[in-house]
Design brief:
Blueprint lengths: L2 H18 L3 E4 L13 E5 L2 E9 L4 E4 L1 H14 L2 E8 L3 E6 L4 E2 L4 E4 H7 L3 H4 L2
Parallel strand pairs: 3-5
Antiparallel strand pairs: 1-2, 2-3, 4-8, 5-6, 7-8
Length: about 130
C-alpha cells in the first residue's frame, strides 16, 4: 500500500467517525500538493468547526513544514475553527495535537510519539 493510499484511507476513516457524530465534513482534494493548500478535513457542527491536517505515520516523530503550520494558523484566524494535527498511529488510533504543541525544529515543526501519547487527546475529547 502506498503512503498516499494509507493516508487517504485514514482520512476517510476520520471523516466517517465525524459524520457519524453529526458533523458536516469535507475532505480537500489534493490537500498535500503544496504547503499553502487547505487542510485535509474540515468538520462543522452547529456553527462550530474543527480543521485537521491528517498524518498516518508509524515513526517515532512527526514533522510538518512551517508553511503548512502557517496555513493552518491562518485557517484558525479566518474561520474561528480550531486546527489540529491528527496523527493516526497503527494499533493506537488517533491523537490530536494543537498547533502550539508542535515544537519548532531546524526545518519543521515536530512532535514525538511519546509527547503525543502523553497529551493523549483523543477525538471524543474535542467533539462538541
Amino acid at each position: 500500500m502506498t503512503r498516499y493510499s494509507k493516508g487517504a484511507r485514514s482520512e476517510r476513516e476520520l471523516m466517517a467517525y465525524l459524520h457519524d457524530n453529526s458533523f458536516s465534513v469535507v475532505r480537500s482534494a489534493g490537500s498535500g500538493v503544496n504547503p499553502m493548500s487547505p487542510p485535509d478535513i474540515v468538520a462543522i457542527k452547529n456553527g462550530k468547526g474543527l480543521v485537521f491536517e491528517c498524518k498516518a505515520w508509524d515513526k517515532d516523530s512527526l514533522s510538518i513544514e512551517p508553511d503548512k503550520i502557517a496555513a493552518l494558523e491562518a485557517w484558525e484566524r479566518n474561520t474561528g475553527h480550531t486546527a489540529f494535527v491528527a496523527w493516526r498511529m497503527n494499533g493506537n488510533g488517533w491523537f490530536f495535537i494543537r498547533l502550539g504543541e508542535m515544537k519548532r525544529a531546524e526545518k519543521n515543526f515536530t512532535v514525538t510519539r511519546s509527547i503525543a501519547t502523553a497529551i493523549n487527546r483523543r477525538l471524543d475529547s474535542i467533539l462538541f
